Amino acid sequence: MKRLHFENAALRHFLAVVEAGTIVGAANRLDVASSAVSRHIASLEQLLQRRLFERHPKGMRVTDVGQILADHARLVEADAARTCADIARASGDRAQTIEIAGAYGFAACQLPRRFARFQARHPHVRFSFTAVEARAVVERVRTAQADIGVTYTHGGERDVQVLFTQPIELVAVMREDHPLGRHERLDLEQLSLFPLALPEPGSTLRKALDIASSLRNLDLVPALSTNHQSSLFHYVAMGSGVTVAARETFTELYGGLPLICRPLDDALLNAGRLQFMVHATRSLSEPVEAFVRYLTLAARLGEAAEAADDD
Fold first, then answer.
1. Which of 61, 95, 137, 240 fits as disulfide partner to 149, beta carbons 3.0 to 4.6 Å?
2. Would you indicate the residue range of the signal peptide (predicted)?
3. Integer CA distances (angstroms), 53 to 88, 136, 287, in order
4. pLDDT above 60: residue 303
């Protein structure tokens, strides 16, 4: 089979079109002429003898072949950045940025504290953190846009390796004086009798709640639906509403609000897992490996482990 050689400039221009969705948008990002971007796309399509985009009036939609090339281009960019970081460290500059993608909830609440504590021992490390939906975390790791992903249970995914998994306990959250507070454990039927504040449709937790309620012939219609976790807690703190969250998320976010939580007696809802993941074939840099070890230790041992790492 003929071996292909992709020019880095062509891949960079191609990836810019994938991310911008238009030739003009890619040209603006790269600060080059639109004709230069078009020329690189044409050269790649000629080399591969395949179309990389479907052209539409509103922009460019990447084809299946184009998506494969986009995955390759992101890996090339990530490996180049890793090589530059290795060279910099060998020259005495130890600074390195770790790219992390995390799902809303646990990651957005607890990771920033763990960044700070890790940096106390490793001041040369920088973090770039992006909070996205759980599914998007997996995609960012798979396409090398993130060194580490912190998310919830997902199905098997090519090019992604799960390094650590831990059960997640879901709890119902309500005011301290709420009628449901007298129960030690709660079920979805009890929750359905009160105004519900739930994550927006499409989120991992909302999908689990919708499936569980459907199996029990319940119709969980939220009085409030939002993608902002702390808004759910503030809402239920003001009245008779109830929300659902991971216990660790509630513990981290409720602050001084007059709230309590009760475990949910539902095997399906409590089947979720917290997961730390990396790309299956990319080698990890020393700082990334060290932070993964620290994350795993902190998750296993809890708060007492967060002030230490395993140097």
1. 137
2. none
3. 37, 22, 37
4. no
